[in-house]
Amino acid sequence: MKKSRISLSMSRIRPIGMSDRNPAENVAEEYYDSRDADAFYARIWGGEDIHIGLYEPGLSIYQASRKTVEKMAALLGPPHGDSKVLDLGAGYGGAARFLAREYGCEVTCLNLSDIQNQRNRQLSKAQGLEHKIHIVHGSFESIPDENASYDIVWSQDAFLHSGRKLKVLQEVARVLKPGGELVFTDPMQSEDCPADVLQPVYDRLQLDSLGSISFYRQQLSALGFTERNLISLPHQLRTHYFQVGERLKQSYRDLVSDVSQAYLDKMIVGLDNWVSAADAGYLAWGILHYQKAL
Ligand SMILES: C[S@@+](CC[C@H](N)C(=O)[O-])C[C@H]1O[C@@H](n2cnc3c(N)ncnc32)[C@H](O)[C@@H]1O
After folding, report:
1. By alpha-carbon position, which residue is closest to atom 7 of ligand 1?
2. Partners of 154 in the beta sheet?
3. Are 273 and 207 contacting, i.e. CB atoms less than 8 angstroms apart?
């Protein structure tokens, strides 16, 4: 009896950072917490990553996705063992485990998907890294940390889900220490993308906007960041979504035992729309690396 009263009162506590929600946060949470999305991403990417890969001939989606993590880490210098890293929209925590294992970093994974956080906990424990990786349920639009808490903020293909991208960048600026670094990737729209052509692209993930390289450049400069590296790789976005679409079509019969047919069919159309938009020159993607003023 006593136990049930305690759990009832705990359930009423609103987690830090979950107040003042934007509708896009609810959309992203519901999407990534669905059984369909979890089974699809875990099986197509191999369970570590859910982001665009760096393709070379012969590389699988899993291998190319690992390359993106390696490349981003190399830009950082590489990170020191005592670096405190915050991964925003951390998915299954593949990047966090890489940084913890290869460099000894302490990584906080902030992510609003419980189902992904559970998988992240299991994988981190199975790989003996749970003491280095802190998994927090929350939104990057309201980061539940003190000012100047981190040496590095890391994010891969997650900011696209925000309806308040400037707020996300302000939060990044707040939690980074002076001189701290931000490295991230994001699927974006190209600079000369016409208005009103991206709705089919938004539809796959129920997005309401995409950022652009100039958006991030201008806003980060206004927040006092210096650009360290800007590696524009739109062809990798095209290759990646094409590869994911091909893999899906090849393994459709197998996937359909775990993922609903409606989800898979919608995904095939959605991926084709991303490839077509990339072919039309409407999309951008790359690795962006900034340093906060000292
Ligand atoms: C495409 S996945 C990328 C996952 C991970 N970064 C990776 O590269 O494997 C997008 C991630 O962003 C997370 N996400 C979306 N909106 C978020 C928000 N407002 N706050 C925190 N995480 C968010 C999702 O839960 C998901 O894990």
Report:
1. 50
2. 87, 183
3. no
For a mutational test of ligand 1's pocket, the pick from 16, 25, 32, 236, i.e. the residue with the most ligand atoms closer than 8 A to its C-beta, is 32
pLDDT tens digits along 114-166 = 999 999 999 999 999 999 999 999 999 999 999 999 999 999 999 999 999 99
Q: Is the pTM of this model over 0.85?
A: yes
Contact by Cβ (8 Å): 243, 171: no
- Give the residue, by CA position, lying nearest to ligand 1 atom 18: 139
pLDDT tens, 199-235?
999 988 889 899 999 999 999 999 999 999 999 999 9
Sign of the torsion angle spanned by Cα atoms 74, 220, 231, 64: positive
Domain spans of the chain, in order of start: 22-292
Nearest-CA neighbor of 119 among 33, 184, 60, 52?
A: 33
Q: Identify the residue whose C-alpha is closest to ligand 1 atom 4.
A: 91
Could you tell me the CA-to-CA distances from 294 to 104, 137, 169, 207, 268 in Å, in that order? 24, 30, 17, 35, 46
Atom of ligand 1 nearest to the CA of 141: 19
Q: Provide the CATH topology of domain 22-292.
A: Rossmann fold (3.40.50)
User: Which residues line the pocket of ligand 1, CB cutoff 6 A?
Assistant: 25, 28, 32, 49-51, 89-91, 94, 110-113, 116, 139-141, 156-158, 161-162
